[in-house]
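Let us practice reading a record.
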Amino acid sequence: MTNESTARAQVRTDIGLAARVLPTHYPLETFIAVNPLAGLEPIPFEQAVRRAGDLYGVRGTLSEDRYRNLYRAGRISDGDLDRVLSRRYPNLTREPHVQLGPRSLTATELMRADLLHGAPVPAPVRRNRTRAEQWAPELADVVDAHTARWCAAFFGTASWPMPGRERGFYAAWRNLAPRDRRLPRSVRASLRAVPERAEDAVLEALGRAEVGHEERITYLQAHLTRLPGWAAHIHWCTGRRTDIDLTQYLAVRLSYESALLAGRSGAALPAGAPPVLPSARERVTRLVEHWGLTGVTETQLATAARILAALPVSAREALWQNAFEGQYRDGLLAALCRPRTPESAPADIQVVTCIDTRSEGLRRHLEARDGYQTFGFAGFFGVAIRFTGLPGGQPADLCPVLMAPAYDVAERAVDDAAAARRIAGLTTLTGAETAFHAAKDAIAAPFTLADAAGWVAAPWAAAKTVSPAASSGVRRWLGDLMAPAAPTQLGCEAIPLDERVLFAQAALATMGLTRDFGALVVLCAHGSSTENNPYQAALDCGACGGQAGGPNARTAATILNQPEVREALRGNGIDIPPSTLFVAAQHDTATDRVALLDRHLVPRSHHGVLGQLEADLKAAGTALAAERCTTLPGARPRASAKRSARHVLTRSADWAQVYPEWGLAGNAAFIVAPRAVTRGIDLQRRAFLHSYDADTDPDGSALETILTAPLVVAQWINCQYYFSTVAPEAFGAGTKTIHNVVGTAGVLSGQSGDLRLGLPWQSVAAGDRLMHEPLRLLAVVQAPLDRIDMIVDRNPVLQRLFGNDWVAVAARRDAGSAWHRWTRGGWHPWDETESTDRTTEKELSR
């Protein structure tokens, strides 16, 4: 028994270690952006994407053909390529010219020519394979198909539940699988004999597959990466629910494989050996033929081949990626060095938005009007709460997943009668909707439902199709009629006063808003409204589980308006005038409309400035809608601002629209600096903007919070968009047009197969045209360099992200200083070449 227990514990440990290569896949309703290669972050980015190629058989960058198209389009220049080559091979410039017949080239020009004209790098080949892949590849697909079918049945809707699933995934499958008539009789007989415990089934199958202990983790990874979507979601479930985990999942997969492969062993098929790459001499010969050169001698060929030997063909895509990123980064840093127009007198209205890239456009258009100052801060405004709305029900955790909600905040009525009417109306509407969907999903009820409600549903569906905006307006009117709005306020008494004061002080100090307060300070959260969109949550906050930030903004405004909080802040050096009022708002990023929240709490003394704010928000939103319309498929590129505003509203309400908005597509930089650094620059909604004033943060605590929380979340978002673009087959969700939703777990492409990871293709591209440029995140920080070093030295997560090139860092002490690049070896001027590959440098010097 001791030996059995030890073996079971060991196999569970091995499964846990094997699962480190898996992404995390959150359910659709709580969608959170993740880096699908987060488990590989402890190794350098370039190595990680190669490892992903071995595991999944996909590229971790664009193809060379794509990069060359970008080069021809002017998106990558000769200078970009040369700077990357010089940084990687700093001895390159000391090499003598290379003569090829009549043509004389520098070593840099020779390498650049190979990048431009060499045979493209072949696609990666999956090297980590299961026994089924090795011995009978057609059976590997059978294992996948059956496993995926049972996963879909287990996680599917409750209207057709998997029989016995209350006993757990493995137990239910063990009872049902032997009755599956689609399997041969011998396979069904084998499945009837699988062990009762999932661990024992895994151990037995590994033994039959002749998997030695030393290769067990690698072999388990081979199985986990066959259906990475289902494996990733089950990995997320592990510890959150008791009826399914990766051990049960692998027990099913391995038992199928063992039964299907009975009697086969040893005769492994070739592993899809890596393609033979051209030698350095063959690459030189290709260039000679491309240029049509004559009179090239053997010595010249050998000299040129020696230079190209330092640049492996397999490294070319990484160099292209660095050059691709370099042009954007160099241009951004140059723009941030240009003199800014100084701000005028203190603003009457200050607006604090989320750091979300979409808020950059709203801030820019709002600041174009007089009297505004804007700030950027994490969209939960520093208050990690568990929120319960007026109707009650299940509370929602409104904070980044890096945190746990600290306090419960509930919405309560100001007018009891109005609140009762609203709750009753919402209860009726929710009950009707629940009954409709339950009937629609049941086995036979759709036929009855069509007879009973078709005369209403059909015209309504037609109206939604022909005139989505009008039908949306009617729906809102009916909703307001049945459940009219009721004034409410948030109760924050559960948060102790000292905690409220600490929150207020930390938030204001971190964003640099500690003096010169205006008449209104607007805390503007964001959300998104779309129809018939399983990925709705992905358009809300990318950090907070797909939740809009309105309740957080309302909570923060409530706290900052409390006299006792202001009195305590005054003792800490932050004096908020009595005339300053904090108000909450929410920006709908699909329509670019901004709604002011809790208007009934605004005193008459501020009605005038509030009216001005509403007018200016409407104008700024209209201008932003016109700007966004130029990139939305199907929109008129030169429509008027008003027509554009109507168009984005229609897209939001259109249940057939696969491009309601672009979300955070294009994100490429995270800027931590005063607004004066970026004000007046059109950052094209590509930068996360976090306000920070180093002078108000002498101990670096605020900067440490920014770099270890919002920056980390931004890196997740950046990587999800990056890998959904470069490897959509493995880490994206495919086209929306064939999505089928599986309960709340995720979507399938079609009726079966793997759960799709990442973002839909329509979130990153329009047809073949990429709307998201896959660039790794650039962190731009204005702060003392030694302060940044201190923070990195005590935070392993930053050492990993910065040191392994998942995030690049550019920093300067103040606006008058030059930009410097963070490296493991210290800070270097941004434009200085720095060796990142000493081995190849030595090869060149020889």
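A brief commentary: Residues 416-441 form the longest helix (26 residues).
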